[in-house]
C-alpha cells in the first residue's frame, strides 16, 4: 500500500489498476444512499453553485458541499 502512488507512472498495462476500500454490505448500502442523496441535492439546486460529493472511508462516509469554481 505504501507504493500505490508509483502506479501513476507505471507501464500502460499497470496504469489502469484502481484500488478501492473493501466494503461490507452495510457500508455499500450507506454509500449508495449517500450518493443518491448527493445526486438529489445536485438536481434540486437552482443556482448550480455547489457540487455534492461523498467522501471518507467505509464506516465514516460524509456528504460534502463544495463550491463550484468557474
Please describe what this structure looks like.
This protein is α+β, with helices and mostly antiparallel strands. It has a domain at 23-70. Helices cover 34% and strands 17% of the residues. It has two helices and two strands, in the order H-H-E-E. A hairpin with a 6-residue loop joins strand 1 (50-55) and strand 2. The longest helix is centred in the middle third of the chain and has 20 residues, at 25-44. The mean pLDDT is 86.
In brief:
This protein is α+β, with helices and mostly antiparallel strands. It has 2 helices and 2 strands; from the N terminus they run ααββ. It has a domain of 48 residues.
Ordered list of secondary-structure elements with their pairings:
Blueprint: H1 12-15, H2 25-44, E1 50-55, E2 62-67
Antiparallel strand pairs: 1-2
Considering the chains and any ligands shown, give keywords for the structure.
extended; 2 helices; alpha+beta; 34% helix; 70 residues; two-stranded antiparallel sheet
Global outline: extended
Low-confidence stretches: none
User: How much of the residues is beta strand, in percent?
Assistant: 15-25%
SS summary, helix count: 2
Overall number of strands: 2
Distance between the termini: 35 Å
Q: Percentage of helical residues?
A: 25-40%
Q: Main beta sheet: strand number and arrangement?
A: 2 strands, antiparallel
Reading the helices and strands in chain order gives HHEE
Could you say which structural class the secondary elements and strand pairing correspond to?
Answer: alpha+beta
Instruction: Give the overall average pLDDT.
Output: 86
* Order of strands in the sheet with most strands: 1-2
Calculate Rg over CA atoms. Answer: 16 Å
